[in-house]
Design goal:
By secondary structure, the protein is mainly α. 78% of the residues lie in helices and 0% in strands.
């Protein structure tokens, strides 16, 4: 990679998108990290209630992500990628500052929903912008940088949550987002989008994804290849203290530490999967390998042979490595579709996957009462792997694809 490539790779759009995703992940995972102390301060006392209310609140946050994914995705294709970066950052920053003032579960619930709407726009808009501004041979590296830097937001969130009260952690997240708006001023709009804007063509028509069979199958394929990722994060990692008690882990497991170690693993996995896909010249082959790794680490997590806190956190790290095809997953979504639908797809796809935590949590809650939490999680985990493999067959290999094209019926 020569000096010119490095200059493009570490350009302002890439840096701002990476920092934006950093703040996004910090705010998105902060609830999982401070779930127990924040709910306890609001009068939720018993372990059963903490899990039930936690499942309820995370479902509200994910519902916000689903709603926001559609809103920001359509806006990104109609108004431009930069308008989404500005609007989403502003909304989730203000919502998280307000979250620090929440005094009861009802307020908490609605503020997580509003924050979820805001958080939905950052990743899709950033990946779309970077994918359209970088040359083809650097595109995979660019999105890998975004994901790797961004995922460290979970690590910082965990450290800050230990140093400050949970309310202050929310204030810090909101303040970081507002500071990011200053950096966003220096980012320029995608030239590919500006060209499409002058054309007499439909932009951001969400329903266009459902009017063509091939396009619909690709869209659903893009969504479901990521299903194991958010089962791991939304169920196994978020409720790691409860799983640890069931597994008989010696010592106390912190949800914040489990999130931190899993996201360190996720960053390692993203760097590895993104780099290897560039060397191999294939997105799909590498995704397949990482889905298989995820299956192996699901089983290790649920049936771990060593019951120490160190091994439990190591397993969380490995689980993160296995699901570390997140950057590839979003890149594939952006590369599948034309400029007039690219933001809609790249923004809705990751948020629809995040939103699957809602039905997954409901199914897990049912299976937990029927076959126990371990076997219930195993059934869901294996099912998500099977669905991901089927979905992988529905999408195109997009490595090296020219991004300057449109979707026309």
């Amino acid at each position: 990679m020569d000096q010119r490539d490095l200059k493009q790779l570490f350009s302002i759009p890439v840096i701002v998108a990476a920092l934006g995703y950093f703040v996004d992940i910090y705010d998105l995972l902060l609830f999982s990290i401070v779930r127990i102390p924040s709910l306890t301060s609001m009068g939720v006392a018993t372990p059963a209630d903490l899990q039930t209310q936690g499942e309820y609140l995370i479902s509200f946050q994910m519902a916000g992500l689903l709603t926001g994914g559609i809103i920001w995705g359509i806006m990104g294709d109609k108004r431009g990628r930069l308008s989404v970066l500005f609007g989403s950052i502003l909304l989730y920053s203000l919502a998280n500052i307000a979250n620090g003032f929440a005094t009861n579960v009802e307020q908490y619930r609605w503020l997580r929903f509003i924050a979820g709407i805001g958080l939905a726009g950052e990743l899709g808009a950033g990946v779309t912008l970077v994918s359209e501004t970088l040359p083809t041979h650097l595109r995979g590296y660019g999105t890998t940088i975004i994901a790797s830097v961004g995922l460290m937001g979970a690590v910082v969130g965990n450290f800050l949550s230990k140093a400050f009260a949970w309310q202050t952690s929310f204030f810090i997240g909101g303040a970081m987002g507002l500071l990011l708006l200053i950096a966003r001023v220096s980012v320029f709009e995608s030239g590919i989008f500006l060209k499409t804007k002058t054309m007499q063509i439909q932009r951001g028509n969400f329903w266009q994804l459902f009017t063509n069979r091939s396009r619909f199958l690709k869209y659903m394929g893009c969504i479901f290849i990521g299903l194991p990722i958010w089962f791991a994060i939304g169920i196994l990692i978020t409720f790691s203290p409860e799983f640890a008690r069931t597994l008989g882990i010696e010592g106390t497991i912190s949800a914040g530490d489990a999130v931190m170690y899993s996201y360190i693993g996720l960053a390692v996995g993203d760097m590895a999967s993104g780099s290897i896909s560039q060397w191999v010249g294939s997105r799909k082959k590498i995704v397949m390998v990482f889905i298989l790794l995820t299956l192996a680490f699901f089983c290790l997590y649920l049936f771990m042979p060593v019951h120490t806190t160190t091994f439990f956190y190591f397993t969380c790290f490995l689980l993160g490595v296995g699901i570390g095809y997140w950057a590839l997953f979003v890149t594939i979504a952006a590369e599948q579709f034309g400029t007039n639908l690219r933001s809609t797809v790249a923004t809705t796809v990751p948020n629809f996957i995040r939103g699957t935590v809602i039905p997954l949590a409901m199914i897990f809650n049912y299976l937990r009462g029927q076959v126990g939490p371990i076997h219930g999680a195993l059934i869901i985990g294996v099912t998500t792997i099977i669905i991901a493999f089927i979905a992988l067959g529905a999408i195109d290999e997009t490595f090296g694809r020219d991004m300057n094209f449109e979707e026309i019926d």
